Amino acid sequence: VGQPDLDRLLGTLEAALGPAGVLVDPGLLQRHACDWSGEDRCAPVAVLRPRTTAEVAAALARCNESGWPVVVQGGLTGLAGGATPRRGEIALSLERLGGVDALDLPTATLVAGAGTRLQDVQQAAAGAGLAFPLDLGSRGSCTVGGNVATNAGGNRVLRYGMMRNLVVGLEAVLADGTVLSSLLPMLKDNAGYDLKQLFIGTEGTLGVVTRAVLRLYPEPIERITALVALDSFDALTSLLMRLRHTAGSLSAFEAMWADYFECALSTLGYARPFHAQHPFYAVVEVEAAEPVADRERLESTLAAALDEGGVRDAVVAASLEDAARIWRIREGAGELIGRLAPAMAFDVSMPLALMPDYVRTVGAGAARLGVRAFGAFGHLGDGNLHLIVAPGSASDGAAVDALVYGALRGSVSAEHGIGRHKRPWLAHTRSAAEIATMRGLKRHLDPRGILNPQRVI
Ligand SMILES: Cc1cc2nc3c(=O)[nH]c(=O)nc-3n(C[C@H](O)[C@H](O)[C@H](O)COP(=O)(O)OP(=O)(O)OC[C@H]3O[C@@H](n4cnc5c(N)ncnc54)[C@H](O)[C@@H]3O)c2cc1C
């Protein structure tokens, strides 16, 4: 295939989507050249911008007929390179297929287009006195389609689960343009196979998500946030267990090792919340049904942990501004990665018992390689650890991968997905039989291999 084939295909796509639905201006294509990881920038040959599910179906049918590879793009905040085009690919952007269609109070659900930003879903729910609990630092840019495709996790998985737990119904389009639409708002539906699961967490390799029915929860009366300083990893896990049992509804427990904490404060210029430096920190969030009583319970739990040792210091936010200042330190990770570029961000998970040794091993290995490791932080309650490493050169990058994944007994991707970056390491977590089954599914649903090729498997 060459330029004449591409021109013919773009002609049929423009007939289906209208002139504003197909971008070919090189200046406009640059915005679609990579995801948040910033690696392997490559502009697509064109960007398709369908406004409806029917237009997505028409566009995919035409690309499939000509066997043209398509990369699916949401808000481009992904960190695994999945939405970054490979040479010659057409990008299918869901940016014009956004908006909250139907908010149903009795079932506590809403229907959102794939291009709706997460923050807009949260605001639509809040407007009705409800909450959509998925929450990521990228909330202002990431989209529902991307959240579904990556099975996004974030800060409140501990209480509400990952995106998979929040998707009640889904509409998706297969590579050949077939539309699978199951947008009923019922929590219970065991009629045959639950096909929506095929599109949750499969990173756009099996179909394009166009709309989703999302599950809402009551808005907590108040969120109480605390920052805790601790002297050991054991103290972190003890506090987690204690808070699960005693402090209202624990909705977040984010751990930070000292080197991440110090690097975030100094690089991002944040004020020091404690006088002394400590080995570990945790951001704790409790959703309060009875704000006064739940605050007292949290404070007395922290006071008891202080008396017993392990916890060295703690501050409970007295205002929304205080809470935002605490969260900024943990959520500064995205900005920190940008400031330290080129930096490698890892997203692994493992049983908690293995985590302290793992961090020590990677830290010692990084020192041997002579690369800068900026420490660890993560959603501790989920066994999820993030690491930031700044390699000096491309060959260091390969050595860092080998170090981080070689020492790991767990998952090479806790929440960001495999995309392109982690594809060589999938077999570290999945067996040959599992990968063969994934490939079989891919062949069945996308026989010409046009959707997000060379991602995941
Ligand atoms: C500051 C920051 C903080 C973050 N924090 C978290 C976090 O706490 N937890 C977490 O899980 N992630 C986090 N992320 C990663 C990222 O925001 C999530 O992976 C998010 O779900 C990606 O959504 P997106 O719309 O930007 O998708 P994109 O980056 O555009 O795409 C991601 C993948 O999904 C596919 N895709 C996108 N839209 C569709 C669709 N409609 N149908 C099918 N496939 C599609 C793409 O092809 C690609 O493979 C963070 C990122 C940043 C920059």
Would you mind describing this structure in some detail?
The chain is α+β, with helices and mostly antiparallel strands. It is built from 15 helices and 18 strands. The chain has helices at residues 3-17, 26-29, 53-66, 118-127, 144-150, 157-160, 163-166, 233-246, 258-268, 291-308, 320-331, 333-339, 355-369, 394-406, 432-445; strands spanning 22-23, 46-48, 70-73, 90-93, 100-104, 109-113, 130-131, 167-173, 179-182, 208-215, 217-218, 222-230, 249-257, 280-288, 311-316, 344-349, 372-379, 384-390. The strands form 4 sheets. A 7-stranded antiparallel beta sheet has the order 15-12-14-13-17-18-16, sandwiched between helices. The longest helix has 18 residues, at 291-308. The radius of gyration is 23 Å and the shape is globular. The two termini are 24 Å apart. The model has no long low-confidence stretch (mean pLDDT 94).
Q: Can you tag this structure with a few keywords?
A:
457 residues; alpha+beta; 7-stranded antiparallel sheet; 5-stranded antiparallel sheet; globular; binds flavin-adenine dinucleotide
